[in-house]
Design a protein that fits this description.
The protein has about 220 residues and is mainly beta. The strands form 2 sheets. The protein has a 6-stranded antiparallel β-barrel with strand order 9-10-11-14-13-12. It has a 6-stranded antiparallel beta barrel with strand order 3-4-5-8-7-6. The protein folds into 2 domains: about 120 residues, Beta Barrel (Thrombin, subunit H), CATH 2.40.10.10; about 80 residues, Beta Barrel (Thrombin, subunit H). It has 3 helices and 14 strands. Strand 12 and strand 13 form a beta hairpin.
Length: about 220
């Protein structure tokens, strides 16, 4: 399932802080990964024509998960896999499709969960170092790093060369303080090649926050 503007939506289907703010924690990608990865999940949605795989971020300790709407689409069942391998059936509680491409899932868990922290995408700069965590091709918990290559203000997208691939949709683009500044969504796809070529896009987290606020109304 592919979304074009010459951009392939990052899903797998079988038949989908401030710039240069280096705190003590932010200096070390290992520290960031170890803190954030427990709050990142794999999302598998059973579609009519196959399986759609993506990534999600736990945003509330009760089990609310943020992901990309195109990952779950109109799936019959959605299964969330935690970083420790535990599986949970998920309920879709919000589905903001079309250009918003944001969805919220809920899983019922007996314990409080680790959560991610939102940053401020209004303060990002081109050249800023970023990290991405995702589930590319089913390799859950994959960490990559790069920079912000470009900011597309007209289309509200962050361009990055951090490697993101099919299965990474819904995963976080992080600043060096381990805060989410974007939700990974798509890759540039001039040759119908769905793998990473160094041009990926994320939805700015400030836009996501606006969408979530609207959905509460």
């Amino acid at each position: 399932m592919i979304k074009r503007l010459t951009v392939a939506v990052l899903m797998m289907a079988t038949i989908s802080l401030p710039a240069f703010s280096f705190g003590k924690e932010g200096r070390n990608p290992v520290t960031i990964y170890e803190k954030i990865n427990p709050a990142i999940v794999s999302v598998d949605s059973q579609l009519t024509n196959g399986l759609s795989c993506g990534t999600g971020c736990i945003i509330d300790k009760s089990g609310i998960i943020l992901t990309s709407a195109h990952v779950i689409d109109v799936g019959k069942t959605v299964v969330v896999t935690m970083n420790n391998g535990q599986n949970y059936n998920a309920k879709v509680i919000k589905h903001l499709g079309e250009n918003k491409d944001i969805a919220l899932l809920k899983i019922d868990v007996p314990q409080e969960l680790k959560t991610v922290k939102f940053g401020d995408s209004g303060k990002i700069k081109v050249g800023q170092k970023v990290l991405a965590i995702g589930n590319p091709f089913g390799f859950n918990g994959t960490l990559t790093q790069g920079i912000i290559s470009r900011i597309d203000y007209a289309k509200n997208r962050i361009q990055t060369d951090a490697a993101i691939n099919p299965g990474s949709s819904g995963g976080p683009l992080l600043n060096t303080n381990g805060e989410i500044i974007g939700i990974n969504q798509a890759i540039y796809n001039p040759d119908n090649n769905i793998s990473n070529i160094g041009i990926g896009f994320a939805t700015p987290i400030n836009l996501v926050k606006e969408y979530l606020k609207e959905s509460e109304g």
